[in-house]
Amino acid sequence: MIIRPVAISDLAALRDIAVESGPGFTSLVDDHDFLTQKIARSVASFAADQTGGQPGDQSYLFVLIDPDTGNVMGTTGIEASVGKRRPLYHYRVGHAVRRSPQPGPGRRQQTLTLVSHYTGCSEICTLFLRPQYRRAWAGKLLSRVRFLFMAQHPRRFARTVIAEMRGVSDQTGDSPFWHWLQANFVDLDFATVNQMVGTGDNGFIADLMPEHPLYTHLMDDSARAVIGQVHPDTRPALHMLESEGFRYTGFIDPFDGGPTVEAPLARLQSVQRSACCRVRIGPEQSPSLAAWTNGGQGKTLMVANNSTADFRATVTSAARHLPAHQILEIPPSLAYSLGLENGADVWFADLDAGRDQSQNPALVANRQSIPVKEALSAY
To answer: Is the distance from CB of 59 to CB of 50 less than 8 angstroms?
Structure first.
């Protein structure tokens, strides 16, 4: 499996994924012109010179390729800075206390307030692994390769990263949360709303959505029950992000009620576990257990070249880290797949989520420093 930037030749596969992913997956919609523009924007973003300044309006879309067939197995992406080109709306889950003029306790009620809270954050998005290609490590690679790329190129991204998780929808693809909003405020069905938002038309939110807080006790049970909940197919992705350090802070999608999670970039586990060293091309064989334990790590690693437009990454157990020499030894076939030569810079991270490598001296010594900031000043 190889991760690379999307290309115009992937257009047909993206249209297939847009259909396969179903309602609620607004970052890919089955629209030829939209997808063509999305690919072009990504190609331009990878090619852009971002040596200084703040993250701009860049969008990075990656595809996972089956090396045997060349087919697109899935997608994953990063938006460098959201909420600037157009507002990014959420409902903030809060509480209001209603008090009577008479002495006695007040009544605490849950509220939803429409806000454009996230401005200038980076967003990870567009993660979809096609069902026929679901295999060991594929999902982890799609999710975590974004953090390795961000660790390589911190100037291209904000210090806070968010992820909007897909909310609950029923077997017909309708959202119980939106069904209540549609019945009371906005006469647009869920499929139409997803199409509009996916293609960038979100002006109706400010025009039609209620400006005043919504009291959730007025909602029907089915709508209230899915507030802050994720689609069953999204639970593995949420668990993976939580293991990276993402946390839910009370903001939900205004259409399906799914949670948005956030984390400081520098504190993500894959960023803290990432390291850069030189590559050495070794023999074309997988190392034995003895070789792994004699100076190597013996781990399943995510490995990537140091390129941007020609970025390539994969997952392998046929690599050996020699921390004393600051070398990662890889076989010739892997070097060829990643476009690496002897002595080139190579990035890697341990994909073993069960072990915290953040205090590993070998990785700390090689890690690129990224300043930590809990939140943007615009928050």
So the answer is: no
pLDDT tens, position by position, 76-113? 999 999 988 888 899 999 988 776 666 656 678 999 99
* Contact between residue 112 and residue 253 where contact means Cβ atoms under 8 Å apart: no
Which residue spans within the chain are E strands per DSSP? Answer: 2-5, 59-65, 72-79, 90-98, 107-115, 122-129, 160-164, 214-215, 247-252, 259-264, 275-281, 301-305, 313-316, 320-322, 327-330, 345-350
Cα 163 to Cα 241: distance, rounded to the nearest angstrom: 9
Distance (Å, rounded) from C-alpha 271 to C-alpha 148? 6
Residue 217 contacts residue 233 (beta carbons within 8 Å): no
| Amino acid present at 23 | P
- Domains of the chain in sequence order: 2-90+116-267 (3.40.630.30), 274-366 (2.40.40.20)
**From 90, 117, 153, 231, the catalytic residue:** 231
Q: Which one-letter amino acid corresponds to residue 361?
A: P
pLDDT, tens digit, 9 for 90 and up, residues 241-280: 999 999 999 999 999 999 999 999 999 999 998 999 999 9
What residue type is assigned to position 245 of the chain?
G
Number of H helices and number of E strands within the chain?
A: 12, 16
356: helix, strand or coil: coil
- 231 has catalytic annotation: yes
Q: At what angle do helices 138-152 and 235-244 cross, to 10 degrees?
A: 40
